[in-house]
Design goal:
The complex is a heterodimer.
Chain A lengths: L1 H27 L4 H5 L5 H11 L5 H13 L13 H36 L4 H14 L3 H15 L13 H36 L2 H8 L4 H9 L5 H17 L1 H7 L4 H10 L3 H29 L1 H9 L1
Helix pairs in contact in A: 1-14, 5-6, 5-8, 5-11, 5-14, 6-8, 7-8, 8-11, 11-14, 12-13, 13-14, 14-15
Chain B lengths: L10 H6 L12 H10 L14 H19 L36 H37 L1 H15 L3 H12 L3 E2 L2 E2 L2 H28 L3 H8 L4 H37 L11 H13 L5 H27 L8
Antiparallel strand pairs in B: 1-2
The chains are: A mainly alpha, B mainly alpha.
Amino acid sequence: MRMIVTKLIQLVVVLLVVSFLSFMLINLLPGDPAEVIIPFGTPQARAQLRHDIGTDKPLPQQYAHWLNNVLHGNLGQDYQTHQQASTIIKQALPKSLQLLFYAEVLALLIAIPLGVFSAYRAGSVADRIANLTVFGLLSVPDFILLFLLTYYLGVKNRVFPVIYPTNTSGVSGWFKAWFLPAASLAAGQLAVYMRLLRTDMIATLQEDYITMAKSKGLTNGRILWRHALRPSSFSLLTATGLSVGALIGGAFIVEVIYSIPGMGLTLFNAISQRQYVLLQACVLVIAVGYVLINFVVDILYSVLDPRIRHARAAA
Amino acid sequence: MPEQPRSPIPLEESIETGSAPHGATGLDPIPAVAQAIAIEAAPVHHGKRKLGIGAWISIVWLAAITGSAILAPILPIAPVDARYPEIVRKGPGTAGHILGGDSIGHDLFSRLIWGARNSLTVGVCAVGIGFLVGGLLGLLAGYHRGRFETVVVAILDILLSFPALVLALSLSIFLRGRVILGVQMTGLMTVILALGIIAIPAIARIARASTLTWSQREFVLAARAQGAKNRRIVFREVLPNVLPAMLSFACLAVAVVIVAEAALSIIGAGIGPDKATWGNIINDGRGDLTTGEAPHIVFCASAVIFLTVMSLNYLGDTIRQRFDVRESAI
């Protein structure tokens, strides 16, 4: 319990710093917002504008004002387009989450059976081939995989769309529309998951209770799936949680290439069109999401793994 | 007599759990990934001091790509900016141009070699910055402990709480065109500095974790008993032992930075749109891939990135195994 309270205090501090850095981003960027809004305005008009949007006040006061707005769900309004950043993000975030979910499920669906199998047949030819393939997958950046898949499955054989379709019909349409980007993101995750599971599983299979289960005459399948998998999946769980966090920001190159209107593309557009308020909002949302997910994983990990729990209790 | 390192918790405990009293949660994202990459990738050579075939292939590839990058100006290849209208979108095997041309008629082969020059420069320099700053911070934090360590770890945690590519992108926008220490930042310097800053926390963590275990060893105690100064102990006793772990991580880091540079180029925040980099080649060829007209542009650049990244990963892994770098090596 004490550990959770300490972690919560740490979380609040980190969130405050993260929000402050996101806030500072807009102040550090080149260019005065007042000049962006009225490029040819008189100095008086600009001064008036600075007063209106509050950029003439001291920084701490601006930050407090901004933070208050953010906590009330108001992420600011763009100076040029006058769109609410929160409205844009509300549309973009679900897209990114769908991609994330699809990719993770795909990766786990392949990684778990593969990891269990190669641990069971550790050292065999099949295990080596699986390991080499996976090592290769680790070295392929997601965007390169996306290009390869796009060309062979989208351009040469028109199985999947080469760019994100704006309207999809039905469940199969949904699966098709997201498959290429999700698969290219899943490949890297899959490699990490499979390796972690394999290593942990090999260790678990050395345990006495596995020998016991074997001597009781349980089938291999039952031993692997019912007895060995769960105690071997702590690292896998952690890695999944962490990569969900990492993908929030890391998927954005894939989003940009495949034109998925998610957080990544929004961020990219905000940068290229110099919509700093939107940029700030995106960075804030992504970073806060990342911090929160890492926090949850951290807590879950220590709840699930008795070794960590006891090490901390002893400390 | 130098003072004993101060520590908020008993030292034995921090050794046993292999983690620090604060900050490290057993969940460090970077080491977790690095470990995942490193787990039994190369065949284990028990006691043998011979390099495997994979390691040799990696070394030969990296040597070839580095050599041609350095020698690019004197190699008998087409000039980097020369355009040949007759080879626009022509595939590999065109007479006089081994890999053919890109979408505006550059010689793809020469473009790739000049691209290696930029991409490798970014990779090596950025990791160099991360190595110098991060390594020093980690080493000092791990050795001196106390309040200094608390502050360093807090800063690292905060840097790590931003998604790396988002932070790199923000930094690269922020730094572009600024004057820093009296130097006008060019596109190349911007990207190097941005990616270097990203590399600092991960490298610092590795260095600190490694230093924590090594500085508890008997030979450090012996050196201290003989009256060695802290500076001598850190640089002559601890550093040589920490270096292999950092070196193996540096190989992985160069690979990550090369990919990140390509990613930044693809979204238009790289070292400049007209410069030859692997990322720019991919970005320029994207359109011809989706139309199916000239997929070789993207494929050639992708293959070069893939081989380089794979070699660096494999080599980093080999180094790790050779020195048997384990955080719990006590």
